[in-house]
Amino acid sequence: MIKKTLLFLLILPVQLLIAQSNLVNFPAEADPMEVGHRIAHRFIAGKHMLHAGKWISYPETFYWTGAINYARVTNDAKLMQAMKDRFSKLVSSEPQLLPPKNHVDLNMFGSLPLRLYQLTTEESYLDLGLPYADTQWQVPENAGQEAKNWAQQGYSWQTRMWIDDMYMITIVQTAAFKATGESKYLDRAAKEMVLYLDKLQRPNGLFYHAPDVPYYWGRGNGWMAAGMTELLRMLPKDHADRPRILKGYLTMMESLKKEQRKSGMWNQLIDEADCWAETSGSAMFAYAIITGVKHGWLREKQYGPVARRAWLALAKYVDGQGAVSEICVGTNKKNDKQYYYDRPRHTGDYHGQAAYMWCINALLDANDK
């Protein structure tokens, strides 16, 4: 009995070391630091990606924030200054590009200045960013009846039951919580997430693009995966909504593990084997799994290899200038399977550039703050 116990104690550390090594010691061509440097620095000279040709879009917002977080993780002062300078130019010389606070895809912009405030404590960032979080729960006079009905139930008036929303709403509300410490922001996001989980998650853990669009679109599911991940990072263990969100997350991760292709990627339509491998959704899934393994929500033995295969596959799609290929362009919902097969694929599209930064920062950041 003593010999068996000693053998177990010797084997256990080795097993843990193997599991943890899945998220470190990558080959040179997949080194997160080097790949991240190319993608993050590419943003410095990148053009704006505008929403409706008018305002800073959500892909640009998230790419920008990803570059800021990479600069923090790697202590890249030059990159951080470039990100702050670009923001100063936006506010002083391009204020017409600041999004209005009237749509779920626009209010998320507040997460960018709120992140800058968290890192710098400069009040101007807080003053700009916080109203984007607050107005998601302040019903405008011209709001429609459906929006008013959601607000009366304690949800955001911007609720529309598209799975994309669960990152757009979650990211600005959690950013407001991190900036202010006020629990109302976290409570709002958690309540909203539970609503979407109860209404939209399928028994297999995945999500249709919308209730009337019965297809498991990759990036749409990626928004859900990333949104749950952001909330679980922030929610206290005793928060009333945490068990429901964790259950939704774990159910989804189990399905994603099954649907991962031999290449390490996930497809544009997750459950369609003949569909093409798509990078932005795959990166979002990898981010959710990497973070889950690091935080202990997912078992390292089961999910560490999934995360490693995913990152090794994803790294192959990044060129020498930091441009990611095979990115599905912006996609509206449509009840037509062929529509998703036929979506154009771009290189360097900010939807994918941003999601890659999430993966890289999760791999590099030991503190994960």
Mind explaining what this structure looks like?
There is one protein chain. The radius of gyration is 20 Å and the shape is globular. The strands form 2 sheets. It has a two-stranded antiparallel ribbon. Strands 3-4 form a two-stranded antiparallel sheet. The chain is 60% helix and 2% strand. The termini are far apart. The chain has 16 helices and 4 strands. The model is unreliable at 4-12 and 14-19 (pLDDT under 50). The protein has helices at 2-20, 32-42, 58-74, 77-93, 104-107, 111-120, 123-134, 145-152, 165-180, 183-200, 218-234, 242-259, 279-295, 300-315, 337-341, 350-364, and strands at 50-51, 55-56, 327-328, 345-346. With 369 residues, the chain is an all-alpha fold. A hairpin with a 3-residue loop joins strand 1 and strand 2. Helix 11 packs antiparallel against helix 12 (242-259). The chain has a single domain, classed as Glycosyltransferase. One of its GO terms (molecular function) is unsaturated rhamnogalacturonyl hydrolase activity. InterPro entries: 6-hairpin_glycosidase_sf, 6hp_glycosidase-like_sf, Glyco_hydro_88, PolySaccharide_Degr_Enz. This is Unsaturated rhamnogalacturonyl hydrolase.
